[in-house]
Specification:
Two copies of one chain form a homodimer. The first copy, chain A, is α+β, with helices and mostly antiparallel strands. Helix content of chain A is 16%, strand content 36%. In chain A, strands 4, 5, 6, 7, 8, 9, 10 and 11 form an eight-stranded mixed beta sheet that branches. In chain A, strands 1-2-3 form a three-stranded antiparallel beta sheet, with no helix packed on it.
């Protein structure tokens, strides 16, 4: 941030009175501009024991497989966001169920909330963001071609819990090497 | 947002190509500026069966009681943020444990993550944000003087679960009347 989004004047990075972190403060109108982590919402869509994955048609990690997920938008709940992303990226209609994982990635200022998604029918299809969308049996999941560590952690916990008849929540903090 | 934070030129609200929501787009440098929900992190600090609450010294809801909580900052995990807020607002050192509630409040673009907090010692004290910080037995909790619906929901679930020997996660969506 170089300019004030309220008045267009240059901003300076300084610690406002009563605060303890540097913020972008307008040199003219004194507006304080905060920057905070973003929320990524998504789900593991399930259908008759299989899970739905998307092959990324866009960077980063083009060609690798992921769960449908994306930035939560203003005006929606976390579950609404996860269902919307699943429809947009995989053409799949889901009911969002339990939370599987909450993953903090401080080096990129993100928190991921990954839910179980019950597909309302088997329908799914490729989109501008997903060159392929496919249901996988557990044995066929392309572990070596998964796009992100968040996907690996979430899928692994989901499958382990399912095997043991559990529906656990996993609080995970990823370090500097997260992809 | 009226001006581009990258170059200072006026922005317009329009739907960028490949998107489906209006964004603030710079009229000069074409930068797209997204606005997304913010994360609030906090905890219910517990000590020998009591819970720690803070009497708000600031608006909104000055004089009402709340759990320590605040906006998650860049560069920290959700649990680090909850512990930091507890130290800042209640002078209490906690180990952040299980997640109690995840509360979406779409009309103010927030997601609250409220954890159980195990106080490392009984220490606590008032701060610039909290005119009083006090340990409460369950029977003494000031239900009629709690600051926000998020506090009421989280405390109620926490206490009900504790009574039943559970540690559940509660996914809650608050509507337009949330305070």
């Amino acid at each position: 941030m170089k300019f004030c989004s309220d008045c267009g004047a240059p901003v300076a990075l300084l610690v406002p009175e009563g605060d303890n972190l540097p913020r972008h403060v307008c040199s003219k109108c004194a507006a304080i501009h905060y920057s905070n982590p973003k929320v990524v919402v998504g789900c593991v869509p399930e259908w008759q024991g299989q899970v739905l994955l998307c092959r990324r048609a866009i960077e980063p990690r083009l060609g690798y497989w992921t769960m449908p997920a994306g930035f939560m938008e203003n005006g929606e709940t976390a579950r609404e966001g996860a269902a919307r992303e699943t429809l947009e990226e995989a053409r799949s209609r889901v009911e969002i169920a339990e939370l599987i994982s909450i993953i903090s990635i401080p080096n990129i200022n993100q928190v991921h909330l990954m839910f179980r998604g019950r597909m309302l029918d088997g329908g799914h299809g490729s989109t501008s963001e997903s060159s392929a969308v496919q249901l996988f049996d557990e044995a066929d999941i392309p572990w070596d071609a998964l796009a992100f560590r968040t996907v690996i952690h979430t899928l692994r916990h989901y499958l382990e819990d399912r095997k043991r008849g559990l529906q656990g929540l996993h609080i995970i903090d990823l370090g500097a090497l997260s992809s």
